[in-house]
Design a protein that fits this description.
Blueprint (H helix, E strand, L loop, with lengths): L1 H19 L6 E5 L6 H17 L3 E5 L6 H9 L6 E6 L1 H8 L11 E16 L8 H10 L5 E4 L5 H13 L4 E4 L3 H9 L5 E5 H9 L4 E5 L25 E9 L4 H16 L1 H10 L2 E2 L4 H22 L5
Parallel strand pairs: 1-2, 1-3, 5-6, 5-7
Antiparallel strand pairs: 3-9, 4-7, 4-8, 4-9, 4-10
Helix pairs in contact: 1-9, 2-9, 4-11, 6-11
Length: 318
């Protein structure tokens, strides 16, 4: 018993010493999706502000593949010292139900620092499709089951989960076409090879503004401030179809509590800054701060919701 107490106190002492000099070198943000994706944009935006405040640069590394499980596994196995941080999306809570062996345990191997942003997804189509409303798209898809297809930023991505919620609520029979990231998915909707996509507003807004994409609805319970003319999916006729894409910071579970606390404080300070609030607003994103404990509870609750949707939609990792 005395040995255990001594060992525990030694670990706490090491963690405290590490935190006092933290950060002493650049911090790496591992992003599971491609450059230009909503998660990547948020990571770069927040990382820039945090880096200036902490006196060390935040370096972004895009580690794409398998719905974010490759990046999450890398971070789970990394040195738990606060220098390797996973910046993931809602897909983090979906993947445990979708992948039988992702290479890590979501709740045991990783721990939350804070959520960073809440972002509406927007249902977009090519303007030449002729659909001006969500109801028109649903009617066309119901009239010809199996004819249409929808894009996503990858199996297990937040855009995929949102599309499955929409499909279940609307009763649509359509083909899922996953891509490596949001930019690829949007490009194929712009090219009209895919019929629709639930794109993160942070990525899609400029393309909607210049008329290259037609917005039919937004996924959140309330309308997006940047697209007040576009109804929510609930307003457009699908009860219980709301979905919010979130982005958050996650580290290995063995990371010293003092380091997690410092990261949380710096992230929350960045999110509260006028500069970041303005930049987030232009992206159509809302700052979404949480304590580490609240974020971990949120991840667990989101996992339970995602598991029910995976079962209802009979989803499988491809």
């Amino acid at each position: 018993m005395k040995r255990f107490i001594f060992f525990t106190m030694s670990l706490l002492a090491v963690g405290s010493a590490l935190a006092q000099g933290y950060p002493a070198k650049p911090i790496k943000f591992i992003v599971p999706f491609t450059a230009g994706s909503a998660t990547d944009i948020v990571a770069r935006t927040v990382g820039e502000v945090m880096g200036r405040s902490m006196g060390q640069p935040v370096v972004i590394e895009n580690k794409v593949g398998a719905g974010g499980t490759i990046a999450a596994a890398q971070v789970a196995r990394s040195e738990p010292d606060g220098y390797t941080v996973l910046v993931h999306s809602s897909a983090h809570a979906l993947n445990p139900a979708l992948y039988s062996n992702p290479g890590y345990d979501t709740l045991k191997d990783l721990t939350g620092v804070t959520t960073l942003a809440a972002i509406p997804n927007v249902l977009v189509v090519h303007p030449n499709k002729g659909w001006k409303t969500q109801a028109e798209l649903i009617a066309a898809a119901r009239a010809t089951p199996g004819k249409f297809n929808y894009a996503s930023a990858g199996v297990g991505s937040g855009t995929h989960l949102n599309a499955e919620i929409f499909r279940l609520q609307s009763g649509i029979d359509a083909l899922h076409v996953p891509y490596k990231g949001t930019p690829d998915a949007m490009n194929n909707v712009i090219g009209a090879s895919n019929d629709w996509f639930f794109a993160p507003l942070a990525s899609a807004l400029p393309l909607i503004r210049d008329g290259r994409l037609q917005a039919l609805s937004v996924s959140t319970k309330t309308r997006a401030s940047n697209l007040p003319e576009v109804p929510t999916s609930i307003e457009a006729g699908l009860p219980a179809s709301d979905y919010t894409l979130w982005v958050g910071m996650i580290v290995p579970s063995a990371t010293p509590a003092a380091v997690v606390k410092r990261l949380n404080e710096e992230a929350l300070k960045a999110l509260a800054s006028p500069e970041l609030k303005e930049r987030m607003a232009k992206l159509g994103a809302d700052p979404f701060p949480m304590s580490p404990d609240a974020f971990n509870a949120y991840i667990k609750a989101e996992m339970e919701v995602a598991a029910r949707i995976v079962k209802a939609a009979n989803l499988k990792a491809q």
